Amino acid sequence: MKQLIPLYEKCVAFLGKLRWLPPLLARIVVGWIFVESGWGKMHNIDKVAEFFVSLNLPAPVFQAHLVAYTELVAGFLVLIGLATRSASIPLSITMVVAILTAKAEEIHDLSDLFAMSEFLYIVLFIWLIIEGAGAISVDNLLSKKLKSSP
Fold it and tell me: What residues contact 71, with CB distance under 8 A and at least 6 apart?
């Protein structure tokens, strides 16, 4: 057992050097998904507005544009790691609204909610809001630049 402790400590030290990887992967995945989704919505705005009408959302044309541009712009910001915490907030709200409107009928128990990609995005956004963009991000570069400025 005593022989395992140094091995465990080496593994923990090695994994500590990879702390930059999870936020980078999370940002790339959700950022890419939302950039693509926003782009697609922008180029099919009439269909998005019709879908929003079917959900009985108020001001469906306005909401369709709002969601399309939010997903595209905020998704891009998350992807590159710029204003990540702020950009994750409207994307989270969009997913909450999607769950409460378009996906509500699919939820019968907690497992249904937890299995939804929209819910998993919310979890990732909450993590990004709390932890930030990580070491490999524009946020981090700007932070270092501001700290080194006289």
Answer: 34, 35, 37, 38, 41, 91, 94
